[in-house]
Amino acid sequence: MHVGIEHYLILSAVLFSIGLYGALAKRNAVVILMCIELMLNAVNIALVAFSRYLVPDVVQLTGQVFAIFIMTVAAAEAAVGLAIIIAIYRSRKNVDVEQADLMKG
Known about the structure:
The chain is mostly helical. The chain is about 75% helix and about 0% strand. Helix 1 packs antiparallel against helix 2 and helix 2 (about 30-55) packs antiparallel against helix 3 (about 60-90).
């Protein structure tokens, strides 16, 4: 069986949909961050698949380079997001995003 670009794009769409549902439906901030990471990884899969299958003869690493940039931004986002969540938990003893109204004064 030949694995084509359609398989990678279906996988990417399913992962992105799961991440989007989790980010919109969940109330725990840690779970929301994990779902955002899942969505970024789905985009990485799509970028690398497009890079591999749309220009197969030329050795261009455009999709892979974009994927590395996205992973770098995702790591920074995770570090900053977790630091904010830890600060909220220390002050409120809860990480529910519905009750995280620290900026309201």
